[in-house]
Amino acid sequence: MTETPLLSISVVSHGHRALLPPLLEDIARLGREIPLELVLTENIPENLEEIVRDSGIPYRLIRNGQPQGFGANHNAAFAVSRAPYFAVLNPDLRLPDNRSLLALVERVKAAPGVAGPCVLAPGGTIEDSARHVPSVPRLFSRAVLGRRHPDYDASVPVQTVAWLAGMCLVFDRATFERVGGFDERFHLYCEDVDICLRVHLAGKAVTWDQAASVIHDARRRTTLDGRHFRWHVSSLLKLLTSSAYWRYKLNAVG
């Protein structure tokens, strides 16, 4: 890694080895347009170097001795990254073209903070990746009553939102440093809500940009795995009792 990258991309695999080759192809294609680096984290042993070393992508491989949470893994990746822009990507994403991440980089250049894309399901429907702040009534409406209408209008090209789902986020480096990265007390779930609220409170932008789109093959583990369900409930309780949550609510930031 001799050339200073414009963009550092953090991807964490927790048994996702089979999902990575298409995403690596997409990242390698983008790397032919801009200087970038990949920080790939092997959260459990799965010998990822075999599939990344011939990709042509400048990379760093982090191998964890013990599995870490979402925020801890991406914070560790940020600590070894070098670029002025930092992208967090899920391993189950596809980047249909090079414009998407480039558009998000341009967005946080123009409005420092964090930006996210329009997220599409494999069938082409728009996922609700930009949302209002969670509350007990809203959670009841979604989880019990099944009312899952979108919080924001996807026909608006660029808009400020309360928070963006963490499967694809691009930060400028200064903002990520200023807010202290992800709060590692959230092992999994709600760390994306929390960091977006803290970005707002820092006076920076949280922007949903329709010029960028990604495809997300969502796993929805919470409804299938008791451990993930417990993590989700625990994270919601942490969020709803956090100072960032109440400061945001009281000040009506964003």
UniProtKB/TrEMBL annotation:
Pfam families membership: Glyco_transf_21, Glycos_transf_2
Lipid bilayer topology: Multi-pass membrane protein
GO cellular component: membrane
Keywords, in A-Z order: Glycosyltransferase, Membrane, Transferase, Transmembrane, Transmembrane helix
Residue ranges annotated for the Glycosyltransferase 2-like domain, each copy included: 11-128
InterPro entries (UniProt xref): Ceramide_glucosylTrfase (IPR025993), Glyco_trans_2-like (IPR001173), Nucleotide-diphossugar_trans (IPR029044)
Pathway(s): Sphingolipid metabolism; Lipid metabolism; sphingolipid metabolism
Cellular localization per UniProt: Membrane
Main location: membrane
UniProt GO molecular function: glycosyltransferase activity
Stored SUPFAM superfamilies: Nucleotide-diphospho-sugar transferases
Name this polypeptide is given: Glycosyltransferase 2-like domain-containing protein
